[in-house]
Amino acid sequence: TAAVALRGVSLAYGRGARAVQALSGIDASFAPGAFVTLVGPSGCGKSTLLRLVAGFAAPTGGTVSTGGSPVRGPGPDRGVVFQQPRLFPWMSVRGNVEFGPRMAGLGKAARRARADELLELVGLGDAAGRRPYELSGGMQQRAAIARALAPDPSILLMDEPFAALDALTRERLQEELRRIWQTTGKTVLFVTHSVDEAVYLGTRIVVLSKRPGRIVLDVPSELPHGAD
Ligand code: ADP
Ligand code: ADP
């Protein structure tokens, strides 16, 4: 079963003469464990495609499914990371990571153990008790990744997660994300407008074009991942 499948997917914002056709005729399916990078110019529908898979929007045509089931809304099988970390400022870093498991009804000791394990994974073991605003942008984005992983989703959806970071921090987080992907075996869908980043990170590279957003290229990456 494909981790993510899109069949004849289209999405228009608005109606009639003012409608914006953001996506049209999208067909793709992604195998479990793939690191898919979605790349293309601003406005080609990358975020829209990710939002459809996340369940934040419904397609106007076609079907989107994850793990063989139609997407009907957000769910614990999908974790989402945005360009801005969007952490709860009044909670500690650990509290932010515990939030999902707490909502899912996990007991205090278990969710704390889960949060601490994930904070170790993203290199924030020492920052668990701190508040988001005490952290650098890169550390906040690490915390957001840990939060997204907390419900143990099989799919990680990331919308330009490193675009707001300086170049050095971005490179570090790219390396860490690749290591996390290799360690956890998650399926990653990663939106970027940087061809460099798409080719560097992806095991599969999907290129979209504008008006309306269509897939113009969908290729496996030949790079030997993990060899360096
Ligand atoms: P990308 O992420 O590639 O920059 P988006 O998915 O954000 O592209 O947008 C695709 C197209 O849909 C663009 O033309 C954008 O202006 C339009 N769009 C996105 N969100 C909305 C919205 N909520 N209402 C109307 N148009 C939108
Ligand atoms: P991105 O960083 O992905 O390009 P944008 O800054 O284009 O995102 O969009 C930010 C938010 O504004 C999104 O929620 C998107 O749906 C919405 N949006 C984008 N384009 C439009 C538009 N033309 N009309 C209304 N909302 C839009």
TrEMBL record:
Residues 6-228 form the ABC transporter domain. InterPro entries: AAA+_ATPase, ABC_transporter-like_ATP-bd, ABC_transporter-like_CS, ABC_transporter_ATP-bind, P-loop_NTPase. Gene3D superfamilies: P-loop containing nucleotide triphosphate hydrolases. The keyword Nucleotide-binding applies. The keyword Transport applies. GO terms for molecular function: ATP binding. CDD domains: ABC_NrtD_SsuB_transporters (cd03293). Keywords: ATP-binding, Nucleotide-binding, Transport. It comes from the Bacteria. PROSITE patterns: ABC_TRANSPORTER_1, ABC_TRANSPORTER_2. This is ABC transporter ATP-binding protein. It comes from Actinocorallia longicatena.
